[in-house]
# Entry
Amino acid sequence: MKILVTGGAGFIGSHLVKRLVKKYPEYLIFNLDALTYAGNIENLREVQNHANYKFIKGDISNGIFIENLFNSYQFEGVIHLAAESHVDRSISNPTVFVKTNVLGTVNLLNSSINIWKNDLKNKRFYHVSTDEVYGSLASKGLFNEQTPYDPKSPYSASKASSDHFVRAYGKTYNMPYVISNCSNNYGEFHFPEKLIPLFINNIINSKPLPLYGDGNYTRDWLYVKDHVNAIDLLFHKGKNHETYNIGGFNEYKNIDLVRLLCKKMDQKLGREHGSSEKLITFIKDRPGHDKRYAVDANKINKELGWKPSITFEEGLDKTIEWYINNSEWLESIASGKYKEYYKNQYNR
Ligand code: NAD
Ligand code: TYD
# Structure
């Protein structure tokens, strides 16, 4: 089976590609990635020489390129992760989110249906999406698969739009698809612009920890390898034309999460208890900041038996240890353009 993974040099995509290449030697895994600031080919070093793996550099928003690629390789499955993924960047530059997340998805849908339309059997377009499409929750309730879409940031609006396109192609062209909407991931190889890796990097470097607003915002956190387990399962066993929510059953207020992170970092770095917490700095809130995300992941649990394999504390320990032991990965990112982004975003 020839499978195209898009965005396979990013955080979740690189974990997924490594899993698929190693677990399914009978598959050919093609990794298409534009290598934007978020893509890092180094993330794939352990599979780069495998016979069933091929990297292709390219931009999903280029329709002609995508069409030629599909005609050449005749992929049988697509797992689509390529996206602009950071809410703060979507606030300062929304247009690229439309280009990649909406137009890029439509290009992939067009080219998939073009080569599949005469034989839809054993074909699958798997669209990886986010719980942020559902908007924001008050202190009670959970997002389930029936929750109406109510995106609040340019990022979530672009992902919501791409989800609608996938479903529309299902209805209009009978495109065989599965969509999953997952909560916040964390783990190894996470770009240090999102909360957990940014704060780990800043603690290592004794820099301020910029917490938006009062820090009383809630997210549901899932270890990235558990998300990858779910994607693997749904790609093979999810029902056609269905949506599945994926989550960690693990809600944390930002301030509580950051305090836990600080405590663990002090222990692992051998620093005096309380020293990392002193770095917490409350800063101006993110515009339109979603108050709370929380996912009801019971459908995938009941239908397919999926559940997170490790606790948040275990996952956080593994993550912190990886960043401490892979300082050169962090350092190579944190030089160059990242410095410019950091200065613009945090005025420091
Ligand atoms: P990421 O930003 O780490 O990686 C995105 C990858 O896509 C990068 O390798 C980048 O180079 C590539 N890319 C960007 N624009 C491209 C383009 N035009 N053409 C080809 N490649 C392009 O993102 P991530 O955190 O790994 O997220 C992957 C997917 O999962 C996204 O679709 C995201 O919306 C979704 N998701 C992420 C989370 C999370 O917590 N990170 C949670 C739920 C869903
Ligand atoms: P983030 O990792 O950007 O994910 P998302 O916005 O997609 O949920 O942010 C997670 C939470 O952490 C969110 O409530 C915003 C907050 N946050 C901060 O307080 N400071 C920061 O510097 C960042 C990046 C995030």
